[in-house]
C-alpha cells in the first residue's frame, strides 16, 4: 500500500510539473509576442510622426544660435515665430524704443512685422516704472495690441537689465 501511495504521489507531481511547464511556456511565448507587437506598433507610430522643421536666426551669427548661452534669438516653426527675450538696461522711452526696434529686426529676418505679433511677455524689475513709460511700447504696436503678460521679477539673466520682452508672431503674409 505504501508503494502504491508513493507511486500515485510521484505520478501526480510529474503531471503537475508537466502542466506547470506547459503553462509557463505558453504564458511566456504569448507575453513575448504581445510585447514584440506593441514595440513594432510604437516604432511605426514614431516613424510616421512628422519631424518639426525649425528655421533659426541669431543676429549676425552664421550658426544661427548662441553656442555660449544655448539659445536662438528667433525660431520659426511653420508660420509661427518665437522671439527670445530682448533685454534693456533702462526703463525709459529711449530704452524701451531701442528694445522694440531690436524685436522688429528679429521679425524682419523672416519677413514679419509688429502687426504679426500675437503674444507678448514682458519681464521687469520695476513694473511701476514700466507703467509710466508704456507709451513707448504702445507706439510700437500702433494700436494693434497683442495678448500680453507683464511680470515683475527680482532680476534678469543679463546683468543690469531692467526689462526683457519676448514675443510670438504668426506670419500672415507668406509671399515675402
Protein architecture, described:
- This protein has about 180 residues and is an alpha+beta fold.
- It is about 45% helix and about 20% strand.
- It is built from 4 helices and 6 strands.
- Strands 1-2-3-6-4-5 form a 6-stranded mixed sheet, with helices on one face.
- Strand 2 (about 75) and strand 3 form a beta hairpin.
Q: Summed up, what is this model?
A:
With 176 residues, the chain is α+β, with helices and mostly antiparallel strands. It has helices at residues 2-48, 93-108, 127-132, 134-141, and strands at residues 54-57, 74-77, 80-88, 117-124, 147-152, 163-170. The protein folds into 2 domains: 1-48; 54-170, 2-Layer Sandwich (60s Ribosomal Protein L30, Chain: A), CATH 3.30.1330.
Could you give the topology of this structure?
Elements: H1 2-48, E1 54-57, E2 74-77, E3 80-88, H2 93-108, E4 117-124, H3 127-132, H4 134-141, E5 147-152, E6 163-170
Parallel strand pairs: 4-5
Antiparallel strand pairs: 1-2, 2-3, 3-6, 4-6
Helix pairs in contact: 2-4
